[in-house]
Amino acid sequence: MLSDWLSDNNILNVKEFSEIFLDNNPFEYVYIDNFLREDKFNELYSALKEEKYFLENSDLFEYFKTEDFKNNKNIIIREFRNFLKSEEFMSFLESIGNFNLDRSRMSLYSLKFKQNNYLLCNNGFDIKKKLVGFDLNFVDFNDGEGGDFELFSLVNEKPFKVVKSISSKKNRFIIFKVNSLKSFYQISEVLCSDKNRDSIRGGYYDN
Amino acid sequence: MITDVYTKKKIISDMEGFFGENGFIQLNNFLSENYKEFRENLIKENFVSVYEPLLCKKKILNLKETYNFEILRVIEFFKSKEFLNFIEEITEFEVSLTKFEVNVYSHRDFVVLNNDVKNDENISIIYDVSDEFKEDMGGVLTFVTKEEEVFCLEPSFNSLSIFYNPIEISKYLKYINNRSKGLNIIRIEMEFSIIEL
Lengths: 207, 197
Hints:
The structure holds 2 protein chains of 2 kinds. In chain A, 25% of the residues lie in helices and 35% in strands. Chain A has 6 helices and 11 strands. In chain A, strands 1, 2, 3, 4, 5, 6, 7, 8, 9, 10 and 11 form an 11-stranded antiparallel β-sheet that branches. Chain B has one domain (4-196): Jelly Rolls (Sandwich), CATH 2.60.120. In chain B, strands 1, 2, 3, 4, 5, 6, 9 and 11 form an 8-stranded antiparallel β-sheet that branches. The chains are: A alpha+beta, B alpha+beta. The A-B interface holds A 59-60, 62, 116, 118, 120-121, 152, 158-161, 184, 186, 189, 191 and B 51-54, 108, 110-113, 136, 138, 142, 172, 174-175, 177-179.
């Protein structure tokens, strides 16, 4: 099943991803470029364009979000969700981060950041004990266009400043460990008007 | 310094009634003089950047190192007995100043909800000398309970806003996005504790 969805190189590079993930600062993360096979990526993005998004707006964020894909009827999205929940893929993730993931739970939805949308600093934590977060990007963003996934350093156990900035790139998959005390990140304001930062996001939970 | 109309007995009585009923009042064209000079000089001052990613991003005036006469004149007015009496008349509370800041908010600035438990009700007062903002630029100050938004305050030049803040009310300033293109929200932000009813 892995080879149905993932680019061949990525299946072989688990050890390298794991080393990067575990060594990275300010918290454990790795991003994998050309993550999905190109045909699957294109099918998935086409399917995503048919989805309904709803404005989410609070003191911390402003963006557009779909409902969770667990009851989604689109066949491509359902297949992708099944793939992410498959034993093979979850084992692949566990090999990268030395996790022990709950097989029965996963969140999966899409976020769309239009011009001036943003997500302020947060730790990605939720009350259901999310252990791993991920973000699959669909659109290339250049320097100065915003939409960056930004990681914070800690001083006195509080987020201090952005020390790592990861641009949105087509078919880039970012995996990061969720730790309520450590994994502080934000998505910077989208500054351009001619494209949206589209992504599929989700999380796996502690077993 | 206060615009004449707000010092008339009948108007003060009306403001008292409005505040008592709504817990809020906004007085436009609040100062009759010195506010333009205040604003012009303020923007030339050195502000200290404050960035606490989980709380706020803003610029704050270092009052201890502010020597400009035009600025100090207005600040002294807001710290004066005259202003205190004015507030006490409208709110019908005896109050004591507990916080006084001159803040500037511009692109990328924000204040998020603070989950720290407030111990007491208080009175918040904002004197505003902001640029003209549109709602889609962000910068709206929103008052909320756990259940709902109760009030939104947009920037408004030379206005004074007075709020009664019960314990259950929190507030946040919406992230200011780049539609604001160099505009500033500039405010004197004060808090008063309520000594007695």
